Records
---
Amino acid sequence: MINISSIKAHMFCPMSLYIQTFNDSEKSNEYQLAIEIKKLKIDIQDLIQKNMRKVKKEMSIAEIESELSENIDSFIKSNTNAIISMDLPIDPEQINEIIDSTYFNIKITALRIQQAMTIYKKDAFAIIDMFFPNCMYSYLLKDPQLELIGVCDKIEIVDGKYYPVTIKSTNPPLKGVWDQDAIELVSYAILLEDEFDTEVFVGFVDYEKINERRPVVMDVNLRKGLFEVIREIKEIIENKKLPNVKINPKKCNKCQYENYCIK
Ligand code: SF4
């Protein structure tokens, strides 16, 4: 089975997938940490959604923000402490990033809620579906025939249609989405179609640093691109084929395997 996390690594650099697969003893810890951070961010969203039920249309922006922020600090603190107690390598910068992005998200959400409450003349409770549609989080999808498995961050269901959503803490491109994010999303879309016997026409990347959602159309070219990537991954993982990559200083400087590669 090919895990979608392998697709992400391959899209960043095929060599990084090779190193991860055959030489990286630290891999499982970092992978586990990434999963725990993602889970925490999803739980924070849930808490904001719960807090939103108490927001009234006569509240000021400051009051809405304060309502949405209730228990957020203590929640982040207890959960990051739990991650530390699991001996996972989280550093203070990552914790600050979680706090900053949460409060940025709360500010933007407060503004949007206030505007929507004014337009619809309703309390937040009555318009909550606009902000938090019916959805499933961290949903495991797999297709034995395709030999593909992965956990989709979020699946939103609107009017019986399914929309895969991937949540990214990376910097977004100036427009559109990164190729690797589009390929990840189409892999969820294909698994989703099989799991729910449905068709998926569009998915979304949520770039949380700028609190922006960007759509990706699941067209034929993107689907073909995924199968090409899966073929290349099989060559690396199953046949241990060393990929032929060019050093790209811009990318390599940010890569955790830079020293390994130079050696
Ligand atoms: S250092 Fe560069 S070539 Fe090596 S794995 Fe990282 S991105 Fe790829």
---
Amino acid sequence: MVGSAVLRRLQKEGFKNFILRSAKELDLRVQRDVEEFFKQEKLDYVFLAAAKVGGILANNTYRAEFLYDNPMIQNNVIHQSYVHKVKKLLFLGSSCIYPKHAPQPLKEEYLLTGELEPTNEPYAIAKIAGIKMCDAYRDQYGCNFISAMPTNLYGPNDNYDLKTSHVLPALIRKFHEAKTENKPFVEVWGTGAPRREFMHVDDLADACLFLMEKYDKPGFVNVGTGVDVTIKELAEMIREIVGYEGEIEWDTSKPDGTPRKLMDVSRLDEMGWESQIDLKERLRWEIEDRR
Ligand SMILES: NC(=O)c1ccc[n+]([C@@H]2O[C@H](COP(=O)([O-])OP(=O)(O)OC[C@H]3O[C@@H](n4cnc5c(N)ncnc54)[C@H](OP(=O)(O)O)[C@@H]3O)[C@@H](O)[C@H]2O)c1
């Protein structure tokens, strides 16, 4: 989802000469293959969007894979970017890096100030290692490697597989199916009380290009809209857009995850970038497009 959005944004800007590989063509976990790839292709700028990604179920079920794949991918790419003198690298993390009970909205300085949310701890630890690795390579070798932490994303190429998807595409799929199959209710995990922020992936891609052009510092930058909704509000919004008239049943035996996750976006704001895409408006557009 993110990689293709960044590509669309760069193409729109008129950039050419992209060097792209699918996971099938190049498994970034394999050190020797990544080394060979960097040796052959003289990369100038790297957007590191490849990762093992998933929602609460995948994060909690495939804990070992999240903690093996992600550090392998990022260690190989970051290290080879240093070896082969990449001019600049942007590492993409996630808002999961923050402690479960961090004050809200989440400021960059809250990193490593408390316990992580247990359901996505392996993913968060991998992402924190990625941020620290970019900073360490900047400190020790002078590399211009930066990190951005996006909030929850949605948009084209999202994952609609209920076993691995995030909450927003999962809700779209569930309401669509319930409507088509005339189901009396849709079951949703948790209580509906957690608050989450959702950003369209094209908005993130725009911020990535902005940071690649303008940001050259250690640490990382939050990327979000600065606005959150409860999962209940989100579910009702999607139900209304899909046009489903049945009930929502909350399965409170399932975990809620972190109670609230709202990014403090003042650092990005001060640099002169702000989100342009409204959640409800774009969701209506995306969902109607899928009909
Ligand atoms: N989605 C979100 O809500 C969200 C929120 C915050 C941050 N992020 C971050 O944004 C980045 C991109 O996420 P996304 O949503 O775009 O996920 P995605 O759609 O699943 O894309 C991840 C990409 O990584 C590739 N990949 C996975 N393992 C690989 C490997 N071993 N070798 C090479 N490529 C591999 C996948 O290739 P295949 O498809 O070919 O397997 C896929 O194209 C991640 O770092 C993620 O943590 C995402």
